[in-house]
Amino acid sequence: MPPLFAGLVDDTGLLGPREGSPVEQVVARYLAARDGAFSGLVGQLVCPVSRLPALVKELARAAPARPVDLSIVVDTGLGAVPKALSTVLSRPALLAPRTVETAAPPDVDAVWLDRVAEFVPEDVVAVVEPRRPAPDDPAGTDAWLDAVRRVADQGCAPRLRCGGPRPTDAPSTADVERFVRVVAGTGRGFTTLGLHEAVRVEGGGGRRHGIVNLLVAVARALGGGDVAGALRSTDGAALAAEIGDWSERAVSGVRGLLSRCGADPAPGTALAGLGLLSR
């Protein structure tokens, strides 16, 4: 697995509606992918706190050969985090906690972020997603970006929601560009959710951002290039060719910022079709 893509894509299947993403199905898919043709691409399994008991039960039944790297998403309040971590840490043969992720109000401040840090062990990464405003709200967008900067400055990893069940869940290209430039300026790594496509797709009344686009956008932000152009491109071959010219240092810089992408399922076949992965 090329270093650019190693452990890049998390499985976010458990964040979907319960009737459409049963735990046993998501676990089976994740474990199969972790041992499959593109196993090196697979990162963490993302699980909301509310589904953690069911996940533990299913993993105990499946008996994985090695612990599952876990991202815990707070969906029942910060007060539930200590119990969730205790549950995970008491089952080291099944689970290894890597990140704790939570949404935050747009006016998130140092006091709120310090409270998050109190719940998260030093060897676990705290990920915080300031809520993005409605489209066409310049003042709200500025406040959102200020919150992203505060999250990074406080030592947490900002999270960017790139898509979801509603069209408004996908941010505009301009908002993604602003976010990337802000985190590049802080030097703090960030994560994403809802980034399911390898390369940007447009049509059907909406847009779906691409993993390859975002990787190239990060590289251009670090090098003073055209970030918006990278995000808008639907030319997968051209984007892949640009990646092919990167030095080892450039790859390290990109992954130092874009640490993980949440997707469902991992787009290994699509990336291989672009010549970025070997089958």
From TrEMBL:
Species this chain originates from: Pseudonocardia hydrocarbonoxydans
Full protein name: Uncharacterized protein
